[in-house]
Amino acid sequence: MATKVMPLYQEKHVTQISNDYRSIHSKHVVKEHTSRKSSSKSVNQVQAKATEAMAEPAYTIPVFRQRNADEVEEYQRVSSHVGKGLAAIQQELHRMRVATKTQVENIAIQNEVKLMMTKKVELCEEAHKLPDFLVPLRPHTVWEKTPVKLFCTVQGHPRPIVKWYKGGVLVDPLSAPGKYKIESKYGVHSLIISRCVVSDTAEYNAVATNHHGSATSKATVTVKRPGGGAVENSQLSGQVPHLTVIHPSKLEITLMDMFGVTFGVEGGSVSLVCTMVVVPDLPNLPPLAEWYRDDKLLKSGKLAEMKVGGGVASLTLPHLAKDDEGLYTLRMWTKDGTAEHSAYLFVRDAAPSVAGVPGAPMSVKAFDISMDYVLVAWKPPNTTSEPAITGYFVDKCEAGSDSWVQCNDAPVKICKYPVHGLSVGHVYHFRVRAVNSAGISRPSRKSDKVTALDPAESERLQVIKLDGKHEVVIKADDLEGYVTIPGEPTDVHASEIFKSYIVLSWKPPSPRGRAPLWYLIEKSIAGIESWQRINTAVKLQSPRYPVFDLEDGKKYQFRVYSVNLYGSSEASELTDPIQKVDKHGCERPSGVPSAPGQVVATRNTKSSVFVQWDPPKHPNKLMGYYIDACIVGSKQWAPCNHKPYKHTRFVVHGLIPGETYVFRVQAVNVYGLSDESQESTPITVEPALMGGVEYATPGPPFGITMLNCDGSSMTLAWKSPKHTGGSKINAYYLDKRNADTLAWKEVNATATKERIYTVENLTAGTFYEFKIQAGNLAGVGVPSAPSSPLKCEAWTMTEPGPPYDLSFSEVRGDSLVILWKASVYTGASAVTGYFVDRAKKGSSDFVTLNEEAVSHRYLQVTGLEEGELYVFKVRAVNAEGIGKSSQPSEPVCAKALPGTKEICCSVDEDTGDIFLSFDACEISETSKFVWSKNYKAIGDSTEVSIATDGRRSKLTFTSPNKEDLGSYSVVVTDTDGVSASHTLSEDALNSMLELSYAIRHPIVPLKHGLNYEILEKGHVRFWLQALKLSPAVSYRFIVNDKEVTSSESQKISHDVASGVIQMTVDHFTKANEGTYTVQIHDGKAKNQTSLVLVGDVFKSALKEAEFQRKEHIRKQGPHFGEYLSFYVEEDCTVMLVCKVANVKKETAFHWFKDDEEIVLDVAPNVMSGSCALPIPMFSRKDQGIYKATLSDDRGKDASLFDISGQVFDAIINAIAHIAGSSASDLVLQCTPEGIRLQCYMKYYTEEIKASWFHRESKIASSEKMRIGGTAEMAWMQICDPTDKEKGQYSIEILDSPTSHTRSFDLSGQAYTDAFEEYQRLKAAAFAEKNRGRVVGGLPDVVTIMEKKTLSLTCTVWGDPTPEVTWFKNEQEVASSEHTKIAFEAGKFSSLTINAVTSEDSGKYSINVRNKYGGEFVEITVSVYKQGEDIPEPKLGQMSRGGAAPVAAKSPAPPPKTPTPTPPPSVKSPTPAPSIKSPTPTPKSPTPPRSVKSPTPPRAMKSPTPPRK
Description:
It contains nine helices and 104 strands. It is mainly beta. The strands form 27 sheets. Strands 4, 6, 7, 10, 11 and 12 form a six-stranded mixed β-sheet that branches. Strands 14-21-20-16-17 form a five-stranded mixed β-sheet, with no helix packed on it.
């Protein structure tokens, strides 16, 4: 039999034809909401939207360009494949049409239900309508050999018939097979022309006709040929076609799944997602979406990521802060205006690092920005249970840096702070932290970028046009002439006045002068002309300045000077007297608002409440309000919003359904939070009845399914309405009709309570449609949508029929439990099991979850993706095979309900009963708790008892045993799927049975058994701790089988709060050895614990008690608080330190080493609490036993410290660590003996573990390689170096466990230079050793009387034998009778003057020289007459042993062999200031007199670096 298919809107109206008393007559109207207006459209307009959504977008070719040959060939190749993809495109289009139709129908049904429950209207006959084109034809321009599709959407009643015409001629697809294809689906009529040719260019008409008239839509199709075509404009020819530009506002958009109220946490992330249907849906033209927060447009960036396309618009906030809290609105621009949706986002404080600290401030912004000043303002956080906020810290950070600097030393108490001292042109961020008695909060989100610039700079610029062409920019300062000194500032006043500071403001001077400008500020107490400059250390460039140090109760006046490099202006006019008060004359901080007025709470939804209040009488620049909620009886207030809300009404979301709350409100301004308002009256969170209409009757049932048919009856099942109307559904009514008729007939006059019914007396072979209505106490609801036509035909298949009534329980983020009912039709044999299939919503790829059929009718499904939507099917199995699948379930989201809890299995602490309990996260007035075992409902049973109290239901086992093992589940009816399950295992049951026995046969539970501890004075405390004690507890201490009681020597006590029972023995002796027992009785419970204190354990306790007793006695006099210990300072000085206690000025302190007293230059100061003994240059000689003693009239004490063994090693390691860290790089130093490598460090001693290496081989000290050191360095010398000694040298200093290594590469040029320097120094040392010199015998000054004989004799030395020459007053002396010169044995030289006269006075000198050099020694001779006083040596004469260099014009002849001059010294690759070589000069056989040679050798400078 043919089935008549009607459009959706016609079906809706036909279903209303019924005079039964249960029918509710209404007219179908679909409501569609747009952006700031609401309009009502007819059903036909909704259908028009659906039609356009299912149509393919129009394709229009604009301009063209000329193609070359290659492009034409490529184009033809691509065009040849267009037809192949057409079928795939049509399939996708069909899928989109079906999805769109389903979405639009769902919207239509929902709106129809709302309208029908508020109004009764008589059914009117459908108005007859002429055909009307909702979407007319559009013109197209296409390439030759490509297809084109013309489509349109028509409405009218009866349904119009559409015919197509080309140039007035009817298009007949049969006349040209494959050329034309005409389609008519879901109200969309289309004509497809495949492989267009130029002759297809024509005007096409679509004519829609019904018996009321006709309508026509026309469009032109232009077919172009590459290289030329139908369009005359040649410049368009050959261009690649593009889609016609369509503005986003031309799209039709229907919002579908929209985001709801969302909750986030600081530091987390949140995404707000909204799906939509877009017509036409063009990939390259996404709709225009705008996001708003509290009516402020958001911009995409790091803090807000926006995406739109693919039918989805999303806003992601990746870094949540409380600044992000607010009402979010998505606004889409559409053809008819805008479509929008709004929902609130709540952002709560992150978990605090320290309990009790406040939340972070928010909305940090900068105002009044200038060159070096900015005013930072913010909003205070809400505080409920935290201590009050005492102030705020403001931090700044330059852009691009993570280094935050605190701006204020002390917390500022208001939500404003002036920051000065900024750098001109720098960019800053600011943040704020709140402070209370518990600590400092998390920082707020940083502010936007703030640039420190003069805001008036642009105002002082002027643009002058020259000749109407050129523009010249000048500053206003340039027009001031040659004025150099600035004028005085004007309008000096206080722009901000607070308790902690004021902000002075003024207008810049005019003229400004021709140089950079700054300001000086002076203050004075009003009435006293005593001015004090307040910004001496600050060069102020901005006309703003905060003043912090004003005294309370005093009035001040201020004046300002303008200053530049040319001078200072006159002072500005004085300000009016300024005092730190508010505008009412009251001292700060009294500026918080007054408390808000009456608070009224009313019901809104099952998890929200509508709260409104009266504004405060004194708002005082109100910022907004904070709303707090408290569950009645808990006294724990929780914040409802975390950012000040500006209005006096607010919807509080996230409440627990069924719970009773009270609310309070606080007003907020810059000074903080006001007092709390009075609490609202208690209100229970339940859905509002919306005037008693919206949820009065249930919604429509759905999902009508046929479960069995025998040829004369059908068994049907359906799903209950999604909305019950607030009361239990107690009736279902069925109607039926022949699919070829419009009239409905009642099936059951008596209501059925089950969701399965067998319809009798049907005609075999006939198609039937059914609809169902649900009823409750309020009446009968709207009918369901008609079922699909079902044929009454007897089922004869051998496989079972479909299961039905699929439902879900225990839905979590990764799992759920699916349940179903058995197939009504079992087939040829009994059903043996079931298979469950799963697929993601929108996918047709179902996956079977169980490999083997399950015999029970439930299955736990795991491995789900949280937040994903799934659909399920179930198939029954018998011996013949697998039967039909059930209808797909409703999509279920793998996400747990907020606040979901699991079943708790425990033991009652009072009775010992084993029970299962469940706390529902939501509940309604009609909700019931349904308990099941293995998913079979538990009825009346003697094995368990069930009790329900509010949100909690408790299942108690009467006599638990193995029969009670299994899976227990509970479902809360009339909720959104609140449910849970728990599997009771044998091990868990046994554990709880043991605990139950313990409760029913109680003992006093002990946290700690009997223990002992030694107290300070040598007292011994025996104690135990019970988990819980009552005031009626009694106990006994038994020692060695004898009960002891409390006395002065042993005190017994207990503390109920802590559960401690104790006995303290004052004098612990050998008599106390034995067994200690405590017996406890507390009500019905009792316990006993013992401690055996004998043998070694007792001896240890007795020894410790005696020690503590002695320690107590010791501490009565002066004593050491900390005994001797050591540490090493940075200069490697070892410090022995100790701390002393209970000392006085008379207390004597002494240091000893090995019983010998150490007397320090500065006596130790015992009153400082510590004493120290420095040991510089520490080495092995400092080993020994050190002792420190304290003594006075009250007693004495001593501390010993043995520096040997491990202690000595530890000190050396500490020194080695400092020395190794300070070690310099290796330095090359050449000596006459060889090449020396030196490493300088803070301190070196041979005890330091230092090793030298040559090419990774350790060096041992030898004649060839000498190792040594001084206090400042370690060295290694290579004697008589050869090429074998080349290579890498390093020193390793060990300080356990680390090491410090320094290296030097002695090879290449470094070795060559060093070897040459060594050879030079060796030669110079040889020359110094063998040069001529005076080794003794000559005085510095000789005084002799006339007529006496003077003999100057000396010993000389040199190899070879030197030449000797005598001089007088720089003239050579020749041997004569008066003056005789002698040189004997090459060793002794003398000058003898006979009968000296005054003429013989003068300066005599001897020059001793050989080929290696020599010396020049002077002697002063003074001759006096007989009877005269002996003359004193004249000032300026050389001291004994001094040597004078030979004058440039010395008459002395040069030696036969010239004195060798050593080459310049070789320097190390590590440059450093040079010092004299530490290598000593070789000694001569006779001790020298340290006189200089007449030709001294060049000084050899060391490249040794300075100490680090």
